[in-house]
Write a structure and sequence with these properties.
alpha+beta, six-stranded antiparallel β-sheet, 3 helices, globular
C-alpha cells in the first residue's frame, strides 16, 4: 500500500510539473507580433484654404494651360484696379464645404479645396463675364453677367454638385439690339422667349432685384 501511495504521489508531481512547463511556453512556439497602425493626417478644406491664404500652397487650374499661382502672386496694391483681397467663405458648389472668395476685378476668383489641393472653381473674365453668386431653390448658383454693354443684359447661371461637376446651367437674358431705349426688348429663359413680366419675376427670384 505504501508503494502505491508513493507511486501515486510521484505521478501527481510529474503531471503538475509538465503543466507548469507547458503554460510557460508561447502557443505553437510563435511570437506575438503587434502591428503598428499609422493614422494618416486628414487636412480639411478650411485648412487647405488657410494654407493658400498664408502663401504655403498654390491654386491650380483644371483642364487649363494657365499657370498655377500663390496668393502672393495676386495684385496686392489697393491702388491697382486688379487688386485682390481675401473675401468670405461660402458653399458655392453645393458639396457641404465652403469655398474661398478672393475679391478682385470682375468679381474676383472662387477657389475650391478638394483632394488635398486648392483649385480655381471659377472667376470673372472682363466686363462681359463678371462673376457673382446667388442662392435659390435651396442651391448655390454661380452667375456670370454682362450688363454694362449696349443692347443686352445677360446672366449665365451655373449650378455645381461638388468640384467641377455641373448639374444645371442656363441663360436669363434681356436683348434690345435694335432699340437703345429697351422698349422692344426680347426676353428669354433657358432658350425660350418669355414676357417682360416673367423675366422680371425670375430675375427678382434669382438675383433679388
Amino acid at each position: 500500500m505504501r508503494r502505491y501511495f508513493l507511486f501515486l504521489t510521484m505521478v501527481i508531481i510529474f503531471v503538475s510539473g509538465c503543466a507548469d512547463t507547458i503554460s510557460e511556453e508561447p502557443i505553437d512556439n510563435e511570437s506575438v507580433v503587434i502591428e503598428e497602425t499609422t493614422v494618416e493626417e486628414i487636412i480639411t478644406a478650411d485648412e487647405l484654404l488657410d494654407q493658400f491664404i498664408g502663401g504655403e500652397i498654390m491654386a491650380y487650374y483644371i483642364n487649363d494651360d494657365r499657370d498655377s499661382f500663390y496668393m502672393t502672386d495676386l495684385p496686392s496694391d489697393p491702388e491697382d484696379f486688379t487688386y485682390c483681397s481675401v473675401g468670405e467663405r461660402l458653399d458655392l458648389d453645393n458639396d457641404g464645404e465652403n469655398e474661398q472668395i478672393i475679391d478682385g476685378a470682375y468679381g474676383g476668383i472662387y477657389l475650391d479645396a478638394r483632394d488635398g489641393k486648392v483649385y480655381v472653381l471659377d472667376e470673372g473674365d472682363g466686363t462681359a463675364f463678371v462673376i457673382s453668386h446667388t442662392f435659390f431653390d435651396d442651391k448655390a448658383w454661380i452667375v456670370h453677367s454682362d450688363t454694362t454693354h449696349g443692347g443686352r443684359r445677360m446672366y449665365w447661371f451655373t449650378c455645381y454638385d461638388g468640384g467641377e461637376n455641373v448639374v444645371d446651367e442656363f441663360l436669363l437674358a434681356e436683348e434690345y439690339w435694335d432699340d437703345p431705349t429697351g422698349q422692344d426688348a426680347v426676353y428669354s429663359y433657358r432658350d425660350e422667349e418669355i414676357t417682360k413680366e416673367e423675366y422680371e419675376k425670375l430675375r427678382m427670384k434669382m438675383l433679388g432685384y
